[in-house]
Design a protein that fits this description.
The protein is mainly β. It is built from two helices and 28 strands. The protein has a domain of 256 residues: Tachylectin-2, Chain A. The strands form six sheets. The protein has a ten-stranded antiparallel beta sheet.
């Protein structure tokens, strides 16, 4: 593929206006009969600020997603708003029709530094960020960003103790209607793992909730007589997150996925519960079959649950999120090269699907991700750190729990930026 200038009839240079500004740009095959693959047209204000961009192929064909853009500026010719969708009123165009699929709004101070950035997708705010600067205009802080986050202990949870599989370990968290729900495993402490004698079993899951942002959890650990989900089939539920406070959820249910072992499990099961009944064990149900129409069937009997994905010894504690910008579920999992080893490295596996039950397609596989010594595990995707397009984001994960990992600073919360490439 190559970039080809377009012919303009009213100026001597193809693709440019009389002021040397690009107004028409197309991309086409380099070999054989040229076929235009993509084409953009641009409009400008008198000060030469670009005011609109038309993606002509999608615009003319009514394609989805709409990729036209419209820009506005302040009196100092600084960009203040970008909107993406379908242009209207021209050309020259005057705005985006209806609710933009993506919008970015910038608040600038007198010296041009950003004071605030707000990103929205389909009218819903996905990022609301403030920034501070010092007297020499160097940025000193960003609220809500992945590179300057802070972890504050509001509750030390000293009763949630135990090394490895001998104590409660978190598996998932979600906020619904202002209430935090925390799922954890190993309620009954040491158990035999289903696939290995030395792996961490990750069985016997329980959910607790907090109405004061984690200051207190109910029920108290000492008051729980038996786990909500005994055994290993749903031993480490990870809630599927859609957005802040569960905004954008697919329906009135809260969904969760679970492997059948903390490290190197083999089967992934999917459960769901009405959003107002998360703490009621009898309200939970699991995918148990598919109807001839390929619609999932559900059962309140956990023993009837069937895997939505099986990969022998490849499924560590999972993470699944829904990326609104690309309308896909992203599933992350991992495996240790040696069962419950902190020094032999891990592999990262990323899959995507149109529904939480699949079908799943491979996005990325990485052997010894980060490094063998780093031994990373339990990758998470904080949706707060995803951009509005659902393309750029950050992984959050832990590293080697062994003596070397602790000394090297791996055994902590780590981050890594990623970008999804759309095929």
């Amino acid at each position: 593929m190559k970039w080809s200038d377009c012919v303009q009839t009213d100026v001597p240079y193809a693709g440019f206006d009389r002021f040397g500004r690009i107004v028409d740009q197309k991309w086409q095959d380099a070999a054989g009969t040229p076929v235009v693959k993509d084409r953009y047209r641009y409009g400008y204000a008198r000060a030469s600020n670009r005011t609109w961009r038309e993606n002509t192929i999608r615009h003319d064909a009514g394609g989805d997603p709409k990729l036209d853009e419209f820009y506005t500026y302040d009196g100092l010719q600084r960009l203040t708003t970008m909107q993406r969708g379908t242009l209207t009123g021209g050309p020259p165009y005057t705005g985006i029709s209806g609710t933009p699929s993506k919008e970015e709004d910038y608040t600038l101070e007198a010296l041009g530094n950003w004071r605030a950035l707000v990103q929205s997708t389909n009218g819903s705010v996905t990022l609301n960020q403030t920034r501070t600067h010092n007297p020499v205009n160097e940025m000193t802080g960003i609220s809500g960003g992945p590179t300057d986050y802070k972890i504050t202990k509001v509750n030390h949870m000293n009763d949630y103790l135990g090394w490895g599989g001998n104590g409660p370990k978190p598996s998932g968290m979600i906020c619904v209607e202002g209430v935090l729900y925390l799922a954890f495993q190993n309620m009954l402490r040491a158990r035999k793992p289903p696939f290995s004698l030395i792996s961490q079993h990750g069985s016997d899951a329980q959910i607790v909730y907090s109405t004061n942002k984690g200051l207190y959890w109910v029920p108290a650990l000492g008051n729980i007589s038996a786990p909500m989900f005994p055994g290993h089939k749903f031993g480490g539920p990870a809630f599927i997150n859609f957005g802040r406070n569960n905004a954008g959820a697919r329906d009135g249910y809260v969904y969760a996925v679970s492997s059948d072992q903390w490290d190197n499990g083999s089967n992934l099961r999917l459960g769901r519960v009405p959003a107002d009944s998360i703490m009621r064990r009898e309200a939970w149900e699991w995918l148990c079959a598919f109807a001839p129409s390929v619609e999932p069937a559900w059962s309140h009997d956990l023993d009837e649950a069937v895997p939505v994905l099986s990969l022998h010894r490849w499924l560590g504690l999972p993470e699944m999120v829904y990326l609104t910008g690309i309308r896909r579920y992203l599933l992350l999992t991992w495996r240790l090269h040696r069962d419950f080893s902190a020094v032999d490295g891990t592999d990262l596996l990323v899959l995507e699907a149109p529904e939480p039950w699949g079908p799943f397609s491979l996005v990325h596989i990485e052997e010894y991700w980060e490094s063998k010594e780093f031994n990373p595990y339990c990758p998470r995707v904080p949706l707060k750190w995803m951009d509005a397009d659902g393309i750029m984001g950050w992984l959050q994960f832990s590293g080697s729990w062994g003596p070397y990992g602790a000394k090297a600073g791996f055994y902590r919360s780590n981050i890594r930026q990623f970008r999804l490439i759309m095929a």
